[in-house]
Amino acid sequence: MTQAIQTEEKQVFRLPDVLADTATHFCPGCHHGIVHRLLADVLDQLGVVQDTICVASVGCSVFIYNYLLLDTVESPHGRAAAVATGVKRANPENVVFTYQGDGDLAAIGLSEIMYAANRGENMTVVFVNNTVYGMTGGQLAPTTMVGQKTTTSQQGRSFETDGAPLKMTEIIAGLPGVYFSARVAVNNVKNIKKAGKILKKGFANQVQHKGFSFVEFLAACPTNWRMTPVEANERVGGEMIDYFPLGIFKDNDNDGL
Amino acid sequence: MKKNDTNLLVKGNEAIALGAVAAGCECYFAYPITPQSEIPELLSESLVEVGGTFVQAESEIAAANMLLGATACGKRAMTSSSSPGIALKQEAISYMAGSQLPGVIVNICRGGPGLGSIDPSQGDYYQTTRGGGHGDYRTLTLAPASCQEAYDLTIRAFDLAFLYRNPVVVLGDAILGQMKEPIKNWKERVVLDGKGLDWSLSGARNREPRLLKSLYLSDGALAGHNRKLQEKYQAMRKECDWEEYRTQDAELIVVAFGSMGRIAKSAVRKLREKNEKVGLFRPISLYPFPEAPLDRLAAQGKGFLTLENNAGQMVDDVRLAIRRHADSGLHCVLPGHLANPDDLLGPIEEAMPAKAG
Amino acid sequence: MYQDVIIAGFGGQGVMLIGNLLAYAAMDQGLECTFMPVYGVEMRGGTANCTVVLSDEEIGSPIVYSPKSLIVMNQPSVDKFQPRLAIGGVLVANTSIIDPGILEQKRLRTFSVPANSIADKLGTAKMANMVMLGAWLEATGCLALESAQGALDRVFSKQNSRLIPLNEKALKQGAEYVRGV
Ligand SMILES: Cc1ncc(C[n+]2csc(CCOP(=O)(O)OP(=O)(O)O)c2C)c(N)n1
Ligand code: SF4
Is residue B206 part of a domain? Predict the structure, then answer.
């Protein structure tokens, strides 16, 4: 009798339960899906899935509740930070986060995000910056790069008439009420790993009642950029990171992660 | 203001704030605007004292969306403002109606359009009874005429909001907000923690996740949702509320709501002293509008005169209610003029059926 | 029983305070009452007025165009409100400030009260408002003086409660002045 090969099955990979087993509606090469996945991992690792309330916004990510099986409330376009304030004040024991695009957070919702941050609401904001209004067809966004062509800036964004793209992470970091503000990207494995760590910190801060945490994701929108997924990824790693540098811009822990 | 005083003279605005405390309101969000600022001023202290939360928001838009968030957690919550601020809240009110969230919104109406003035006005009648924001929805609307009623109806607003899972508006004006009257029937604060609700958010612990939304994209989904909402609005009809004063033998019924209703009552009394057969019908719920009792009065052959502190808005609902038997005259006191009983005597006398005949 | 009064004067003369006091006094006597202040822009002009209605029945309008009585503390208020006073109405005017010559005597029951001088003798002209209310209570006879005196602690904060005895006196002297006339 040949010796049986004794191998214990060891699971090295699993999908967190909070992630729905469903097909995605995002375009090929879209980064929203990667950010969703990181969120699922982080909530799972921190063991707070059953305590979490998601505040959805208006944009391509409005269907976040189809992918993350969490208690969720939809907010009007731009108002997620105000809705989340109401949720967190009503239920301080819950983990509360918003998930917002650049049009939602940095244009129509600029007032709401600035004031929630300035009050130091103990919540986490996940900000997905893809430099366009994705859902409505790729119009000029507050974060569109100077020179970038969009459906409403067909000659390219003009600094003279449209101003410069807003660097939200830096702006938020400048507010005294903010505990943590960082920018990450998910364009390669290294950056994804780093982004996961930083996002985890953004949620751990809340669990530890430390205050307002803001995490900006640089994201690709190949569809509205009129690029292939590969080209779009390259744009994030090149032009975008050049203008929107990655890193932690404010951390009251100062532990350098 | 002395607390624990059973017989207390309070402004209408304060009555509303104290009503909210008694109703177990736990979260209140607001942005300052005259003539309702006593509400945030009082609640910033009184609500926090009893363990509630107050946030002075950066705008009315934010305040209304904070209300949306707090009600999503099943909490009794409120916001208040006056006309220009209420216009900004319409976005969130429409979302709350669509997501079936029980927010209470107080509008101490002032003169418009635009910045208008801080004078009393009933110019937001259409806005509040027709939904105010976008889409096919309705908000229950209660219109108090005295400080005691302001207190009682604020409490009722919370009850109705949760009964129907629907936004409820308490509509007053600067007269109600600023006048002082005794409150005699105080209620103990009762806080319902909302934990037993089968729709509110608290984290999906040992149950399926819950979703509060107003977006319905799949084929037929929105129609189904709207049908459900419309059925709910039909069911609300049983909440009709109104006051009748000397209508029984009246030949002319004066219809007026809120402050205008009580100013009209004084005019009716003066005319009764002159043996004019006139009575008052005061709608207390503006949505649902008390159509059936008006129809009943019309069937008795009475005449009607609608009095409003606007350019004529509620008169549409009066005419719809009585259309099978009668029509209504209209006398308007335009916002910017303060109505008083003496000025109403002439228009009412002229509308008496014998004279109008 | 039904009585209404418009109380008018300059801001700072304590018009709102005696309006409140009257409403509390009425309430403590089991009457219905309303107190309606003018507010906001109208107040910025430096004048203030309020309307108080007292009744043993439910009150209709808290706003009155032709009142049954009037307490006026300055000249502009006479110009504005005297013509509106109902025939036979009670006019109580502070003639320390107002020229008695402009007061109608025939159509109205007019009481000229040198409220500032009376209050001065008590130590401070600030209490002219209380003198006026005391005079009005006597002139209309609609509430006992004691009911207003008893309600003083409802309108003065704890820190100012030491002022109550002097204000009681001012109310009394206003009433006595009218009784003596
Ligand atoms: C009040 C209002 N204005 C406009 C819209 C239309 N709208 C829907 S999504 C969107 C912008 C979305 O862009 P972004 O926030 O950048 O998110 P993305 O779709 O790129 O992820 C707009 C303008 C709306 N829903 N509500
Ligand atoms: S349009 Fe852009 S943001 Fe929206 S799903 Fe497609 S790639 Fe993603």
Answer: no
